[in-house]
């Protein structure tokens, strides 16, 4: 179905330069001898096999029997099915664009329909098991967004294989930093899992292994030393919940307050000095940077230094 090839870019520098290889490993896809684009699916053997199968043959699998449909449901964590007398152009275009990450199927036999003619259903092996598309079936982008939203677990571990998918949802992300080695880690995760469905389509709730990726906490406005902790991140702004109990009720209120605009942005900062300006020199910290620098009426000459 496909040729898998490896090239040492430190030796074949001309080839690496031609295709702008910036980091390792980089996986690129060629079709008919021409570069098709970057491979952006998972990096496990199973992920690569799934990608190759999904990109071989038609983008949409035609299903003729109930047995075939059930087999597809069992073999795929997520499957998108159009029930209609004919395939629609919009469904085919969405399937072609997303075939690398999702499985699409078409059922023409009305005896097998799940819903009315033209219905698009997402079947999944997690969360609520099934979602029904309620948008404009002729809108390719609407179908693609529906598939992305439905394919994401309400609460899941984030890592290299699914990070891009969550980012592309463009929703605020609620990060739970937890150490799997801690005795109460499963209970802590359950506190978030229990409220995840209430924020579906509004906030992506995820957990991250703080033993492996604890340094990410610092980027979220957290100290990065105390776990478990929680933070909301969106468009460069962070809202930190740290050194406090992580319960369903507490985090539910915290996320709700965020969505209602009732939280102040977390800014990593030293405490404000007793006097801003001494002998003509003004000391700036994170908490007063906007006031004294970004929103200043005058030009500012500022020194950034490492203590």
Description:
The protein is of the alpha/beta class and 307 residues long. The protein is 29% helix and 21% strand. The chain has eleven helices and 14 strands. The protein has helices at residues 13-18, 45-54, 66-75, 89-98, 140-151, 163-168, 185-193, 210-213, 216-219, 248-259, 289-294; strands at residues 28-31, 34-38, 60-63, 78-83, 103-107, 119-124, 130-132, 155-157, 173-178, 204-209, 229-234, 237-241, 277-278, 281-282. It has a five-stranded mixed β-sheet, with helices on both faces. A five-stranded mixed β-sheet has the order 8-10-9-11-12. α4 (89-98) packs across α5 and α7 crosses α10 (248-259). The protein is globular and about 80 Å long. The model has no long low-confidence stretch (mean pLDDT 91).
Which helices and strands, and how do they pair?
Elements: H1 13-18, E1 28-31, E2 34-38, H2 45-54, E3 60-63, H3 66-75, E4 78-83, H4 89-98, E5 103-107, E6 119-124, E7 130-132, H5 140-151, E8 155-157, H6 163-168, E9 173-178, H7 185-193, E10 204-209, H8 210-213, H9 216-219, E11 229-234, E12 237-241, H10 248-259, E13 277-278, E14 281-282, H11 289-294
Parallel strand pairs: 3-5, 4-5, 8-10, 9-10
Antiparallel strand pairs: 1-2, 4-6, 6-7, 9-11, 11-12, 13-14
Helix pairs in contact: 4-5, 7-10
